[in-house]
Amino acid sequence: MLRNYLTIAWRNLVRNKTFSVINLLGLALGMASSLLIGLWVQDELSIGTHYPKAAQLYRVMEHEMADGHIVTDEDTPGILADELKKQFPEVIYAAASSGWEEHVLTVKDKVERQTGRTVGADWLRMYGIPLVVGPPATALTAPNGIAISRKLAHVYFGTPQQAIGKSIRLDNHTDYQVTAVFENLPSNAPEQYDFLLNWSAYLKHEPWLNDWSNAGPGTRLQLRPDADPDKVSAKLKTFLKGRNKDIGPSFNIELFLQPETEAYLYSNFKDGQRDGGRIDYVRLFIIVASFLLLIASINFMNLATARSIKRAREVGVRKVVGAERSALIGQFMGEALLLTALALVLAVALVTVVLPTFNQLTGKQLNLPLAQPSFWAVLLVLLLIMGSLAGSYPAFFLSSLNPVRVLKGGLRFGAGAQLFRRGLVVFQFGLSMLMIIGTLVIYRQLQYIQTKNLGYDRQNLIQLSSNNSALGAKYGTLKERLLKMPGIKSVTFSQTSPLGNGNTTEGVSWIGKDPTHTISFHNSAIGYDFVETMGLSLRGGRDFSPAFGSDSTNYLINEAAAKRIGYKDPIGKPLTFWNKPGTIVGVLKDYHFNSLHVAIRPMVLRLQKTNHYGQILVRTQPGQTKQALASLEQLSRQLDPNTPFTYLFVDAAYQQVYKSETIVETLASVFAGLAIFIACLGLFGLATFTAEQRTKEIGVRKVLGASVQSIIGLLSTDFLRLVFIAIVISSPLGWYTMHRWLENFAYKVSIEWWVFVVAGLLAVVIALLTISFQSIKAALMNPVKSLRSE
């Protein structure tokens, strides 16, 4: 019996090649897209969960409340980790950590920039990072010790064993001995680095880290398995009170714990409350994958229904000779499962071909886990779900047909069946419209980001890091000589990058300031010619100038700061920064020194005549970038021959800030296109079905004189009505969804009415192109042939 069913199923697939190919292609594309999205989602969800004790790991976070705002970040005092380990019995391990930094590592003639960080001694044990060589308890305790990855050990020393005890020069001035070699971090580790330095030694060289009033490093904890993280968070809440002497009466810092497993996905906070992050994109693409699978399944239903008249007589004969309904359901479900299985094989093949391009687009290293039984279990579940979903309606519908009516030629579909099929088409195009609207809005927001006037000119602006290099100490010579070289227009330096300024302080005061009210200001040290090099505009006053010797105690502020300070005319008014009285000499027009996700906040800029740590900014002459880079490289190698020359273009780096949004826009465009394509396959099936149902009607109309155009319009109007209904239903849903997404940006586009018009017209045009083939074919059919068909 089973063999007979399989034979019949295979013959039906072969006999109806067009429908089989359309079904196969729709299901394969839907499942391939979902598999790709599934691999991406699995990777996103796995980030930060691979640590052996992941469930016990936490980051200490800060809520900083000042001036009516709550800012949340993981900047904490540098001595917090050691203190928490002493004060909290729930803490097993605690470690401070710097952010990742690039340093120049030199071993003999090998000089390369590598990424590392400075961490507490508990770091390796806390995160369970396996060591190839060396004891974890002492790997990070030696003041001049350095732990390196297996990769670096092979690069510099050949083997991990040969690396132990060997010397590595850091930034051309400090020698470290290799105390341990740890395994290369997996690709799903949220933080990537290749070496680790000792935190205690770092504290001695950076005295500001020992002050409770300063924050910057991160603090990580591992709690006991029986510890209650909520109770620990409650105890942490007021931990800094009484320790930070600079906190004003109205200012408060509250500490709390965030699980390490949530830090990557839930990184956004708004007014002290968790407000999503990468998890929003994970949820978005889970929904997209579900949409694609639903659309593909609906296609199968519509196309199977379109063929139902041809299969009806078969059902009638089988019922007359004694076939039970359950057997017929099993047969049709078996056919659906067979076709789904073939589509699944094709989908896996498509994923294998497309995966390298997908990895390049998303910046991941995804692979099909063919060796894992769980992957095959997922495929089996997908096969059963898709096969059952796609085949359920045709199976139950066809098996319910009355054999007497079918064999007498009286098969007609009631209003309920027609309404169901049309509802499926509306649902398909509604989902497709949602994806089109989303794609258009995301594209417009990205265009807005890329073309928005940031308040400074990011074109022809080059940034060089002077961190951990000789260029900072020789900045005066560098600037003087650069200005004489071809292609260079101006040079300055800044303590922070134009792309992101996380430095904040509450140590700003002025005449008339409420002493009980503490306000947070962004701040940065800058050099001469900063305004010119950045391409900023002055609202009033002047830039710092060597002609004014007092500028070392003067300040520049932005419009947001001027508004917050409240001086009617701030130029020449007093301002105190970190207990250093000075004068406001210039007010800058507001410019974006952080992401467009956040609003422009008050900024204070101070003059620093020497540069040992920060960013060197070089403005090139338009059209002379090549000459400027040659000048930069030549002089850089002369002044700092032991450091590799590296640079970045600020405009290109700016695009990288929004890499996640760019990836989402590209993926949304691709999957929206696939959704439309698959939906059109379903519309084609319904057009075929309708043409078959109305064959005699069309013949009669042609005999009575109806034109080809009128018949095409008759058939097309029914389908376009469904598309218009889908547009009306999906437009408000699309507006609401994208309005919520745009709330993540402080500066954003508005959702204009024409977005829905464009999306609707696109859907209508695509639908017309899809149904025109069947409509024209039916309209051109010979009426004699149509009327004698039965």
Spell out the blueprint of helices and strands:
Blueprint: H1 2-15, H2 17-46, E1 57-66, E2 69-73, H3 80-87, E3 91-97, E4 101-107, E5 110-119, H4 123-127, E6 131-133, E7 145-149, H5 150-157, H6 160-163, E8 167-170, E9 174-182, E10 195-198, H7 199-205, E11 218-223, H8 229-236, E12 252-259, H9 260-263, E13 269-270, E14 273-274, H10 278-306, H11 308-320, H12 325-362, H13 373-399, H14 403-407, H15 415-451, E15 461-465, H16 470-473, H17 475-482, E16 488-494, E17 504-505, E18 508-509, E19 521-526, H18 530-534, E20 538-541, E21 555-558, H19 559-565, E22 574-577, E23 580-588, E24 603-607, E25 615-620, H20 625-639, E26 648-649, H21 650-657, H22 659-693, H23 695-703, H24 708-742, H25 753-779, H26 783-787
Domain MacB-like periplasmic core: 20-238, 435-632
Organism: Spirosoma pollinicola
Subcellular location: Cell membrane
